């Protein structure tokens, strides 16, 4: 059975981890940063060294392919990949594993002259983590990006996407040219660490992903009245922060109860105004995120939480402004891709389980244009988006070899 070179895969993972490396471990490599641009140049060099054709599209996505005609309508490619940008103080495997393992699979196929009827390609999608626009590169590739809004996209620190693209030598006005026709991609499969504890706790080496959650993010601003924190009686206070806090707790309970454990919720951004210890907060602002693999459930939960916010505001004597920030739809993975992953694992003597992805991935955009799927390997302790993110070397090697088997099946 065909095998990847694990030594080569490990070397590339180590080398990629140097770009944006942190002293205490982990990496900070946001899209379009100088560290990211260095990593992009390194990746292009590695793709060429593997004997593949390499190019970067107008959106900033990096590609390597066994055939320069990849993505031609008459010869649709089998595509794999992930992303090489990271969250602040992130780990070295999130995204990077899918790109480097994909590159290694194509390198092994070319090197060993393994038969494949379709062109094969690997992608490093730009800005999956959403510093400027969540899943930006794959949205551009799939024709899901509203290019008219590109000039409005900015990071939380105010840095504009158009400025960083220009600094890196790209023309923001050409982002729309990254789109390819649906007929140009035969299928897509993405290898990823699970980023959760389910596989490790079950003792199963390979997860076959059946669906990817949709994500709703909403900004809620509870507006009350600023008052003296010492002289204003407690019963007269219209505290915007307390309303936001009450909503956050009750929204969690609502999501847990009504989803039966199939949805998760988080409040990761809290802003209090005026933010002074001796003033009753006039305003409490939060960003509320919900994730679920079922679109109907996600829509019902969002409406229920909106109604909850209004009830809390009335009870607290404040007003609330509920503004949707972003929404991605849950995506079902293609049965053919799931079967290819399961068959490749079986032939390698590896047990599998079916599960849904609780994190968003570029694969959900690819699912709008082609047969798409994912395979997971266990994450130690379920840890991710932190510097001690880790998967065992044997888990990485198994995952990469299952990816190789899957690509050969899909390209037959």
Q: Report the count of strand segments.
A: 15
Distance between the termini: 15 Å
Poorly predicted regions: none
Number of domain units: 2
Q: Tell me the name of the CATH class of the largest domain.
A: Alpha Beta
What is the rounded Rg?
23 Å
Shape descriptor: globular
User: Which fold name fills CATH's third level, the topology of the largest domain?
Assistant: Aminopeptidase
Largest sheet properties: 9 strands, mixed
| Helical coverage, percent range | 25-40%
The percent range for strand residues is 15-25%
Task: Write up this protein.
With 412 residues, this protein is of the alpha/beta class. The chain is 34% helix and 23% strand. The chain has eleven helices and 15 strands. Strands 1, 2, 3, 4, 5, 6, 13, 14 and 15 form a nine-stranded mixed beta sheet that branches. Strands 9-11-7-12 form a four-stranded antiparallel beta sheet, with helices on one face. A two-stranded antiparallel ribbon has the order 8-10. A hairpin with a 5-residue loop joins strand 1 (53-56) and strand 2 (62-65). The longest helix has 22 residues, at 295-316. The mean pLDDT is 96.
């Amino acid at each position: 059975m065909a095998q990847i070179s694990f030594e080569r895969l490990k070397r590339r993972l180590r080398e990629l981890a140097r770009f944006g490396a942190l002293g205490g471990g982990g990496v900070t490599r946001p899209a379009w940063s100088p560290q990211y641009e260095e990593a992009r140049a390194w990746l292009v060099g590695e793709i060429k060294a593997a004997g593949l054709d390499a190019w970067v599209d107008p959106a900033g996505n990096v590609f390597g392919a066994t055939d320069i005609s990849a993505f031609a309508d008459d010869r649709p490619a089998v595509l794999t990949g992930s992303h090489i940008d990271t969250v602040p103080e992130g780990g070295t495997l999130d995204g990077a594993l899918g790109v480097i393992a994909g590159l290694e699979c194509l390198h092994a196929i070319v090197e060993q002259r393994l038969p494949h009827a379709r062109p094969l390609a690997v992608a490093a999608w730009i800005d999956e983590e959403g510093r400027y626009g969540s899943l930006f590169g794959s949205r551009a590739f799939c024709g899901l990006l509203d290019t008219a809004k590109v000039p409005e996209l900015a990071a939380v620190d105010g840095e504009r996407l158009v400025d960083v693209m220009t600094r890196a030598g790209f023309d923001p006005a050409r982002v729309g040219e990254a789109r390819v026709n649906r007929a140009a991609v035969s299928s897509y499969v993405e290898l990823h660490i699970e980023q959760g504890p389910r596989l490790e706790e079950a003792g199963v080496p390979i997860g076959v992903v059946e669906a990817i959650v949709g994500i709703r993010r909403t900004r809620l601003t509870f507006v009350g009245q600023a008052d003296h924190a010492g002289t204003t009686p407690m019963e007269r206070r219209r505290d915007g922060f307390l309303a936001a806090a009450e909503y956050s707790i009750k929204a969690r309970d609502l999501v847990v109860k009504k989803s039966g454990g199939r949805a998760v919720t988080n409040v990761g951004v809290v802003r209090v105004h005026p933010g002074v210890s001796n003033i009753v907060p006039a305003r409490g602002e939060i960003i509320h995120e919900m994730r679920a693999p079922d679109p109907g459930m996600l829509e019902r939960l969002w409406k229920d939480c909106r109604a909850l916010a209004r009830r809390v505001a009335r009870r607290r004597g404040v007003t609330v402004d509920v503004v949707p920030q972003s929404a991605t739809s849950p995506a079902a993975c293609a049965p053919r891709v799931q079967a290819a992953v399961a068959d490749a694992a079986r032939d390698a003597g590896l047990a599998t389980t079916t599960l849904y992805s609780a994190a968003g991935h570029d694969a959900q955009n690819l699912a709008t244009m082609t047969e798409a799927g994912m395979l997971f390997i266990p994450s130690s302790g379920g840890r991710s988006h932190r510097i001690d993110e880790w998967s065992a070397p044997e888990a990485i090697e198994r995952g990469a070899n299952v990816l190789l088997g899957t690509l050969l099946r899909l390209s037959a």
